[in-house]
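Justification of computing resources. Each target in the renewal requires a structure prediction run like the one illustrated here; the chain below, 316 residues long, is used simply to show the kind of job we budget for.
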Amino acid sequence: MTLGERVLAGDSRAIARAISLIEDEDAASADLVRAIFPSTGRAYLIGVTGPPGAGKSTLVDRLVATIRAHELSVGVIAVDPTSPFTGGAVLGDRLRMQAHASDAGVFIRSMATRGHLGGLARATGDAALVLDAAGKDIVIIETVGVGQDEVDIIRTADISIVTLVPGTGDEVQALKAGIMEIADIFVVNKADREGADRLVGNVEANLALQTFDEAAWRPPVLKTVATSGSGVADLVDAIWRFREHSARTQAVRRRTRSEYQLRELVSHRFIEHLEREVLASGELTSIVDRIAAREIDPYTAANQLLSRALGPSRRS
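Resulting structure tokens:
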């Protein structure tokens, strides 16, 4: 059997191997995605984001347990900071969610950001495709936790859950436009702490400043204590309600996601083509140095690179 066929059969080792190929940008990863892509689009992608220290990992652990109680299979992609020594994830999946280690219905994978901004690794979307093709009903994507910059999740998941925590400045963070705009559900975790009700009030007050049509979804603000599981069942119920509410518009959101992924892939491939086929070794770095030295502006440099890329190969 090919790797793609083993992934479609739900083979855990094949899933792990496939995600490694994608994460390493191995040449074989493109063929793999081509093979499994027709069998994707069935999983529901749940994004969990928020600032560091909000308890996202513990919340995801509890979400997995609650969803499994509904007899649904789950895949988890936990995006972690990149190790400066190995380039891998600083926090591996061995440190996470050990209660699910023996559950064949759960697959957990840590991924490193490898310098990619926005809270996700570049390969996260394709890794989610692998879990989707492998038959996982639900795929949970946990972002790295970089504060206000975690807006990539809305371009990757079907639902975005923003996790906040009282007492760490989130009273201000919750009012940031980017955070307010990406959330389909707000979760105030560690709600047994002082200031939880105040944080809920701040988020609700900000939502009250927005106008929601009668048929529009108004993000609920829920309280959880992930360490004990308090409030997690209510969060899962809210996820199901949003899924039902957005069923008619889900195709639009997924189309937007597909467009973003296509643009991202073309941009990445274009830069690769420039460096491999058009420019001499080190030439791109030299151009960047010239821009930094104000010898050329970035728009002119970009136009020149585009002209060279569209013309015949001139690599020396």
